[in-house]
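I hope you will forgive my troubling you with a question about protein structure. You will find the record immediately after this paragraph.
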Amino acid sequence: MRFVIGHQSDRGLVRETNEDAFFVSDRCLAVADGMGGHRAGEVASKMAMDVLDALESMPSTDSGWRDLVVQINRTVLDAARLDRRYRGMGTTLTLAALVDVELVVVHVGDSRAYVASGGRIKQLTEDHSLVQTLVSAGTITEEEAMRHHSRNVITSAIGVEGDLRIDVVRTKVRPSDVVVVCTDGLSSLVTRKEILAMITEATRSAAPDDCPQVVADMLVSKALERGGYDNVTAIVGRVEP
């Protein structure tokens, strides 16, 4: 199977630069949301995507995917040690790859991956964030998390010293399923139900090959309409045989 892909990225209405980066191929969708001053976040996110771009083949095992993330983490850490301008830089990493009939999602940080199938949408990642810890404990709701003052505090990231949490999730997909990978500049302003509604609308109104780009444009436009407080990136892949 392969993806038909649409993508859109915008620096938003507040930030001076876009520290998001993304990588796409016919079998892989990935985003990275960089962090760090003096454009260091922009450097970290691009480094992560450059490692993916240089791959000759994708891993086939969960341990192989984790080893890849460890390699990316080491690349970012080494660069930060060599150049003081980049000290403290880091990035999230979320990718969705088609491996045979499965979708493999690899995740560090608070970017997200969703899959829409049969009129329903499912979030495939769990945010590595303080507010997600509160949601999981039942202290706050998902709606409250979107407005929480600590919503930008993440608990795991590429390039940060210490324990690195790497989630690897597998799920079956079928042709016509739609995968969305995005940074928190989107997910903090647009709900799951709204993402599904846009996919449904685009599926009805656009040609199949145009649908992913239409959805990506709609998603980013909605985030900007609601303030665009952060960089916002949406990668949309429709699964094809």
In short: The domain at 2-240 is CATH 3.60.40.10 (Phosphatase 2c; domain 1).
